[in-house]
Write a structure and sequence with these properties.
By secondary structure, this protein is α/β, with parallel strands linked by helices. The protein has 25 helices and ten strands. β3, α4 and β4 form a beta-alpha-beta unit.
Length: about 525
């Protein structure tokens, strides 16, 4: 039996802790309360208290004083301390006097229950030690560890396609496992961990994940079949179960609901096909691949056999021309709506995978980078920060993560382009306009009209800032683009003239020679380009 004591000078806090925590589910029979250290000491001396939850800062003596006294009295039990201040000296003394947990106020009931669950497991182990003696507890505790070590070896591939060696290892470790039985792997992938890590701390979060998997899938808090792989940005959890598929499906449904109720992280679960011990490694690898690559199943519980049966027909691509037009117009809403609709269609047709999202990300990145380059903005510098990198990494794990990344990409790029446009000189704006419209029929008057200024005034300002006439600037850029096109053998010179904005081939040839010193034909011959006859 476990009895708890809540100690806090704030009566309201005592009542909140007493009423908010699900004590019976945790295995706590009685919960006493005290409002200062002296009351707490009297209760501890007269009642069998196993667990103390105490505030640190109290006017008649601190929770650390109570903890110190408790240890001096050589009482058996565990302490959970609460404080409003994240003070290192408090934490240091708490650890020195073997406090089990140290939580900040205002407390989060989910975090507190996870911490209490871990403490209560420790208390029960201590009670079992007293009852059964050291040898009995040692055997029990080490059995769990020995079995977990065996399952870890299995999932590392040590017994892959080696049934005899697996059976020998089971016998050698004196495990009660049946080497001839079928086992089912339940593999969970937990992503978007930041909020939960901030709430629980990494250690408590890992414990909570193992505990909820063990209780709901294996029916017990003690863990002998749950393996956790902490991969920094995600947590992979594997349960090795012997129950039938129907029961496991029900338990996985409860697992998804329970995780969603206490965590902000996204859980995706893959139920594997039953198999013998010697085939668990390859089954595990297939499940991990499915969890990472099957974006359409993200945040759901699915069967590996269903994922393997899905066939992907056709290709999943974004309409580059449509995106280029929308990026040019700075129409973020239209882009996001198009991307969202396209991804949803990919979800329906099972074409959405990590590879298709990587391709879509690259397409959108290239279009945005080209637009930034037109304004002489350095794109890599713009997105070389932790937020951008984290969003980019997550963008391929789900449709919503891709939308979040695309929204950040477009918002950042368009803000930069708008700021650059405001800071541009007249000549810079004119030069950018020429780059975008050189193939059209533009002159000083049409450019001045675009910027709502007098043509003569625009010409003077441009000449003062660049030393060039506006007419020469247009011609120079057209000739520069013509030189690029002349290196392509399949384009006639007449077509090039029209493509860079000249209506007359003769005028084009005259202007070309003026700026390059050669005719277009001579220029092309000097490049050693064999072409169709012009």
């Amino acid at each position: 039996m476990i009895n708890a004591l809540i100690v806090d000078d704030d009566m309201a806090t005592v009542e909140v802790v007493r009423n908010a925590v699900h004590w019976k589910q945790l295995g706590v029979e009685n919960v006493s309360k005290a409002y200062n250290i002296e009351q707490a000491k009297k209760i501890l001396l007269n009642e069998p208290i196993n667990l103390v939850i105490s505030d640190v800062e109290m006017p008649m003596g601190s929770g650390l004083d109570l903890l110190r006294w408790f240890r001096e009295q050589k009482m058996d039990g565990e302490f959970l301390l609460l404080t409003c201040h994240e003070d290192f000296s408090y934490a240091s003394e708490a650890l020195h006097n073997r406090a089990a947990e140290y939580l900040l106020k205002p407390f989060d009931v989910d975090v507190m229950e996870v911490a209490l669950r871990r403490i209560i497991i420790r208390i029960k182990e201590q009670q079992a030690l007293k009852k059964n003696g050291e040898l009995g507890v040692w055997v029990k505790d080490n059995y769990d560890e020995v079995q977990l070590s065996f399952w870890n070896s299995v999932l590392e591939g040590r017994f892959e396609e080696k049934p005899q060696q697996a059976a020998q290892e089971i016998a050698k470790r004196q495990l009660t496992l049946d080497p001839q039985a079928d086992y089912t792997l339940i593999v969970g992938r937990l992503t978007n961990l930041a909020k939960d890590e901030a709430r629980f701390g990494r250690g408590l979060l890992l414990f909570a994940v193992k505990n909820v998997f063990s209780e709901l899938l294996c029916g017990r808090p003690e863990n002998d079949s749950i393996l956790c792989n902490d991969r920094h940005t995600e947590i992979l959890v594997t349960a090795i179960c012997s129950e039938g598929q129907e029961k496991l499906q029900e338990r996985c449904t409860l697992l998804m609901k329970q995780t969603e109720s206490i965590m902000n992280s996204i859980l995706t679960v893959c139920i594997c096909n039953p198999c013998r011990v010697e085939n668990l490694y390859s089954m595990h690898q297939e499940a991990i691949q499915a969890l990472v690559h099957n974006v359409a199943d993200y945040g759901t519980c699915f069967h590996l056999s269903d994922a393997q049966a899905e066939t992907i027909n056709g290709s999943f691509t974004l309409d580059t021309k449509k995106l280029e037009e929308s990026v040019f117009k700075r129409d973020k809403r239209a882009i996001l709506q198009y991307v969202k609709d396209h991804l949803e269609e990919g979800m329906k047709t099972k074409q959405l995978s990590i590879e298709s999202l990587q391709s879509a990300r690259q397409t959108l990145l290239q279009i945005v980078y080209v637009e930034l380059a037109k304004a002489d903005c350095k794109a890599p510098d713009l997105f070389n920060n932790e937020v951008a990198q984290e969003l980019s990494e997550k963008s391929v794990q789900s449709m919503m993560d891709f939308i979040r990344w695309a929204n950040y990409l477009l918002s950042t790029a368009f803000s930069k382009l708008e700021l650059t446009a405001r800071q541009e000189t007249i000549s810079q704006k004119v030069h950018r306009y020429i780059k975008e419209h050189y193939a059209e029929n533009i002159d000083r008057n049409s450019i001045a009209e675009e910027f709502y200024v007098n043509p003569e005034y625009l010409g003077k300002i441009y000449k003062r800032e660049t030393g060039k006439n506006l007419k020469d600037a247009v011609s120079e850029y057209r000739i520069q683009k013509a030189q690029e096109l002349l290196s392509h053998p399949n384009i006639r010179i007449g077509e090039i003239a029209m493509e860079v904005g000249f209506d007359s081939f003769a005028y084009f040839s005259t202007i070309f020679k003026k700026y390059t010193g050669t005719t277009p034909n001579e220029y092309r011959k000097n490049l050693n380009v064999e072409t169709k006859e012009d």
